Batch of 4 targets.
Target 1
Amino acid sequence: MMLSAWVQFSWDLKNLPAESPKLPPRYTVEAASLEDRDLLLACVSRSVSMESGWSDDLTSRIKLAEEIVQTSFPAGEVAFVAIKHGARIIGASALRDAADKVSNLPLGISVLNEYRCRGLGTFLLYESLRRLRERGLDHVRVVTKKGVTADRYLYPKFGSTRVVLVGAPV
């Protein structure tokens, strides 16, 4: 069995650009409510399942998403920010404002496959970082698999630092 390689990105939020990337007017961004749980889980699960780099860890990743959406979210341990197209959630990010955690974005940035390559992931990453800064964090971290799209194209944005982790993330 081959072990997955993991990477951690971190951002110093003092260096976050003042201007947000633009969100096209046909989309809205908002804090998700508990009534959105099924839509959030569907968005995250579909997003991960369409990324071939997650295939060997797909079951554990979806189980983590279920735990966070069904348990941590109602308990107030995480908040969700969502991009909607009408009533449909097409992008989501879980925010954990505990400074001592390995990842403040425990599910990373999720955008449905059919909505990718439109700047929505970049917007959602920026918005997640901005909201975590508003919650008092100076530094934010996310852990992802080495080589997935987010590792190569999304998380290097906004002045992040990338570190390869030894062993599985906690």
Note: Residues 21-137 form a domain with the Aminopeptidase fold (CATH 3.40.630.30).
Target 2
Amino acid sequence: MNLTRLVYYSQRNPSEALDVDHLIETCQRNNGRLNVSGLLHYNGDHFLQVLEGGRVEVSALYHRIARDSRHSNIILLSCSDVRERMFPTWSMGLHQRMDDRTRQIYLRYFATDDVNPETINVESLLDVLQDLSVELAPRVTIDQT
């Protein structure tokens, strides 16, 4: 089975209610069953998410996300086969803030902390997300049952 990594950006639809804790609990439960891992960065205005897993599972999950009314202006940044997971222990990690530390991480890789999804370098974005994931604890493991 091929391992696929998909990265997307979307804006939060402010007219839709969003309970981030419930969203992450649901993602962790469903992704664990599908053997999908990843990380979601949410700063209150937009989402950046990485999904990793089987090609069919990641594709189906992305299409479900794209139909979710909590998202608007969704942009697929990258989708490719990869050799290994970047977030192997996360059924879905969440980084939820844009504080000074987060800005420092962004500014290490980009000229600004304002992400433009039309011009972003996806490899640098993945580096940002990996750095942000280090700050997250406790780790959430993939349920392989």
Note: The longest helix spans residues 20-34.
Target 3
Amino acid sequence: MSETIRTFIAVELPEKIISSISKVQEDIRSYGFKIRWVKPENIHLTLKFLGNVKKADIEKVGEAIFESVKEYSPITLRAKGIGTFPGIKRPRVIWVGISGQLDLLVGLQKTLDEKLEAIGFPKENRSFRGHLTLGRVKTKIDPKRFSDALNELVRFESETFVADRIILFKSELKPTGAVYTKLVDASLI
């Protein structure tokens, strides 16, 4: 069997944005919920999760990324609001939303999805909803108390930042948490 690499394509966040999102994590953490938090340095804006990709196909994925970014200039965004998937009563994922030039971000993700489909990666079935995962809920938590915690942060909004590159990351799952390594780095022009 061919060796594979677990991968995803994402926008890396500037340190100042990560710092403000980290404060949101700390605010929620202060409530004592059992949540597996994403390390602040690992918070990113995923455009496409590829899963296990054959090492031999990494170059083709890189070419699809470079083809996709040719059509886009840098995109102005901000982290804004907070929510959960699938919902507040049975949360599994806690996230911060994205606002700003969403039409361009959605367009970039769609272009990327199409270029990747052309080389054999299935298109996403769901509509793209840009978000930044803060943590994953592994146990049942009191929805009322959890809702109260999130309501404290509903007006959260970061400074604006510019998404000017997309990156293909290798993701290695370790007991201490995921370790991400850049494989391809493509600039929006």
Note: The chain has one domain: 4-187.
Target 4
Amino acid sequence: MRKLKNDELGRLSVEDFKKAKKTPVVVILDNVRSSHNIGSVFRTSDAFLVEAIYLCGITSKPPHKDIHKTALGATESVEWYYCEKTLEPLRSLKEKGYILVAVEQTTESISLQHFRIDRSKSYAFVFGHEVRGVDQQVVDECDISLDIPQYGTKHSLNISVTAGLVIWEAFRQFRMEK
């Protein structure tokens, strides 16, 4: 077994990425405070052809050295928007027919392993603040809440880890399942 070199990986150029068919998923970051987490979400969104990222509230936006450090250029490929209030893009996306999904532990959460994508729909996944999670007003606007089962002593995962798991699962269901 030999490690592949970067030029053997067949990655898209930024121009080709922008033209590529996207996974019908957008990511909304609701007051995410860590620029490293934001950069990581950009990189994951690039990996799985996410349509766009909405950076809301206190969420930092590019250009920012700490976002750049973890995004490794994904801020150039993934379309992104900034909104002062998270409810703005939620309402706009809902009008466009997106299913709004709060990734949050609620009384009605669907566990990630039971979540099924309707391939005829588009989805907006909302990820929240590292300590407070997704704001309750934002949860109230969403159609579904989704959580990731955990079996240790902690009650949450890092937002960039959570985003990676959820975005991968959405990509897998949209692009890999028959």
Note: The mean pLDDT is 96.
